[in-house]
Specification:
The protein is α+β, with helices and mostly antiparallel strands. It folds into 4 domains: 3-130, Immunoglobulins (Immunoglobulin-like, Sandwich); 148-448, Alpha-Beta Complex (Coagulation Factor XIII, Chain A, domain 2); 460-574, Immunoglobulins (Immunoglobulin-like), CATH 2.60.40; 581-676, Immunoglobulins (Immunoglobulin-like), CATH 2.60.40. The chain has 14 helices and 39 strands. Helix 3 (181-191) crosses helix 7 (250-258). The longest helix has 15 residues, at 269-283.
Length: 678
């Protein structure tokens, strides 16, 4: 008969286990392991010694408030001769004696979260179980060490903003291993309404990263629940923080956790996406932030955006918008619920735009399904498809109430971007979402979505064309020219009217005031001729109108007098902020104080006051933001300079994020990669 021994004490081998499971950056003061991978526990007995075949040990692993074997939230198992990584199992790995080294393994499909493990009759230990993309039996498995280092372990990254012609890299501190962040991420799961209604079923659902990703899509915004962020896209940011001021997710998640789950104010799309990426990586799901330039917001699910302009070519605001860019996340997950073609990257969007199943969430949907136009697949494929591939119909509303179709070359879903693996370069992934514009494959995918061909884009404009050309040097604070180029490709002389205007615009497509306008009533072009019409943009005019996105919309409306046919060209430009220069002073080693000398030259023809530099970086600044205010104003052309001290806590390649703020020039961002030695 098997003999049960009383356990006197145990050692959870935090340092060894957490390092082996790649969770040691979370700290080594508690057990954090990944599913489907063995971990070690050392047991010490009060009396007697362990004898193979004589001594028995039984184990029970439980998660959630209502653990149940039926729902997979409770597992009972005993000792086996060897570890079985396909299920919960335990085996002895030491010789017989009064101390036993146990190897314990969770099932590769076990729910993630907080666990209690009962050891025989007298021992209970707590641990946290995460998804395991290094385990072939886990549906988040990724067979590439460089990608795993990027999409799971990397604590910082680059998010692209700006325009599709000029993507601007913005550094971000994901900080998924910083103190308190994993606990905040687990609290997000516990606070979701599905868990509040049926905790047993919700904890069971946490075995599935598709379920978890959908929960995160809903919980990163607070529209239906006690989620993390409240969005705001217009007006002031009173009572909260301007979304442009965030440098990372750590401050946001800590604030939400500390404020007893009151929403943090405020977020916009890149902030929502970055926080979702932090939580996904913290839980062990490979994740990356995606930027889609000229992103469509289709409100009626017909995959067609109707854009209205007035007689000057200015956009008339409607709910259906084309965002200058929009950010979401992709998670790497196999989809056993779908055909094998749909394994891999799944898109989900935590920015609250439209409801899905009654809740403000979106996805996850296979990126492959979007490319192929398979819109019946879960979740929210039509909305994501429209974001990257909607048709655009442009209509002019005339003063007499009539409307005219406008020939326009606007195409949504351009330069879809993410950070490259192992470098700060931009990777263009447009080809993963759509076939080449106008190609046979793209048209077939659109037909599969049961919608019309892009006839509007295929129309000929009678040989009279208009486009917008800009220079390479468009810096904030400078005066510069942009050009409308009118070309007559016909065999006859043409007379036309050109309206060429500019206005400030937000990244979400909201129009601001006019920055400059020109109306030429009689533009004459000989057959084959071309005419360039300049429009001067002066800082004195646009400086006070710009939003923090530094974006200006250019629109050229051409009307052929012989056909009365309007042709529209639109282009958004982003004005460059000055460069922040960062010089590292001192030998970069862990736990050794060092300094960053930061400089920025004022590019504006006016004085900057209330100047402040701030820095932040995973494992560099202790999870905090360090600020340095300048004692004096900075005149035109003068340098703002500060020296800020910090102490790295871990070795390796780290990213120091820098932000400059002042009265007239705000949210200028830069960074410096630093290799910290041991």
């Amino acid at each position: 008969m098997a003999q049960a021994l009383d356990i006197d004490r145990w050692d959870l081998e935090y340092l060894f286990n957490n390092t082996d499971h790649r969770t040691d950056l979370n700290g080594v003061d508690r057990l954090i392991v990944r599913r489907g991978q063995p971990f070690t526990i050392s047991l010490y007995f009060r009396s007697g010694s362990f004898q193979p075949g004589v001594t028995s040990l039984d184990f029970v692993a439980e998660t959630g408030p209502q653990p149940s074997e039926q729902y997979g939230t409770r597992a009972s198992f005993g000792l086996s001769p060897n570890i079985d990584t396909s299920r919960w199992s335990a085996a002895v790995t030491s010789p017989p004696g009064d101390m036993v080294a146990l190897s314990i393994c969770s099932a590769p499909d076990a729910p993630v979260g907080r666990y209690t493990l009962s050891l025989g009759r007298s021992g209970r230990v707590d641990f946290i179980l995460l998804f395991n993309p290094w385990c072939a039996g886990d549906v988040v498995y990724m067979d590439n060490d460089e990608k795993l280092a990027e999409y799971v372990l990397s604590q910082d990254g680059i998010i692209f903003r700006g325009t599709y012609k000029h993507p601007v890299p913005t550094p971000w501190n994901f900080g998924q291993f910083e103190s308190g962040i994993l606990d905040a991420c687990l609290r997000i799961l516990d606070m979701n309404p599905k868990c509040q209604r049926n905790p047993g079923k919700d904890h069971s659902g946490r075995r599935n990263p598709v379920y978890v990703s959908r929960v995160l899509s809903a919980m990163v915004n607070c529209n239906d629940d006690r989620g993390v962020l409240l969005g705001r896209w217009a007006g002031d940011y009173e009572g909260g923080i301007n979304p442009m001021s965030w440098r990372g997710s750590v401050e946001i998640l800590r604030a939400w956790d500390k404020q007893q789950c009151l929403p943090v104010r405020y977020g916009q799309c890149w902030v929502f996406a970055a926080v979702a990426c932090t939580v996904s990586r913290a839980l062990g799901i490979p994740c990356r932030v995606i930027t889609n330039f000229l992103s469509a917001h289709d409100t009626n699910s017909n995959l067609i955006l109707e854009r209205y302009i007035d007689e000057k070519g200015d956009l008339i605001q409607t709910r259906e918008m084309i965002w200058n860019y929009h950010c979401w996340v992709e998670s790497w997950v196999a989809r056993p619920d779908l055909k094998s073609d749909f394994h891999g990257w799944q898109a989900s969007d935590p920015t609250p735009q439209e409801k899905s199943e009654g809740v403000y969430c979106c996805g996850p949907v296979p990126v492959r399904a979007i490319k192929e136009g398979d819109l019946l697949l879960k979740y929210d494929a039509p909305f994501v498809f429209a974001e990257v591939n909607a048709d655009v119909n442009t209509i002019r509303r005339n003063k007499d109430g009539s409307t005219t179709k406008v020939i326009s070359t606007e195409v949504v879903g351009q330069t879809i971007s993410t950070k490259s693996v192992g470098s700060d370069a931009r990777e263009d992934i447009t080809h993963l979402y759509k076939y080449a514009e106008g190609s046979h494959e793209e048209r077939e995918a659109f037909k599969r979505a049961n919608h019309q061909n892009k006839l509007l884009h295929q129309q000929e404009s009678g040989g009279l064309r208009v486009s917008i050309k800009v220079g390479a040097d468009m810096k904030k604070g400078c005066d510069f020219d942009v050009h409308a180029v009118v070309t007559n490709d016909t065999q006859s002389e043409k007379k036309c009217r050109l309206l060429f205007g500019s206005c400030a615009i937000s990244y979400s497509g909201s129009m601001g005031e006019n920055c400059g306008f020109k109306d030429l009533l009689n533009v004459e072009l000989a057959p084959g001729a071309e005419r360039r019409v300049p429009l001067r943009l002066n800082y004195s005019k646009y400086g006070g109108l710009l939003t923090e996105d530094n974006l200006i919309r250019l629109a050229a409306l051409l009307i052929d007098y012989s056909t009365v046919e309007p042709t529209l060209a639109v282009r958004n430009i982003v004005l460059e902020n000055p460069e922040i220069k960062v010089r590292i002073i001192g030998e970069p080693k862990e736990k050794r104080k060092m300094a960053a000398e930061i400089t920025l030259r004022n590019p504006l023809p006016e004085t900057l006051e209330d100047c402040c530099f701030s820095i932040e970086g995973a494992n560099l600044t202790g999870g905090s933001v360090i600020c340095e205010r300048l004692g004096s104003a900075v005149g035109p052309g003068e340098e703002a300079k500060a020296k800020i001290y910090f102490t790295p806590t871990h070795s390796g390649l780290r990213k120091l994020l820098v932000d400059f703020d002042s009265s007239k020039l705000s949210h200028v961002k830069g960074y410096r990669n630093v290799i910290i030695g041991k």
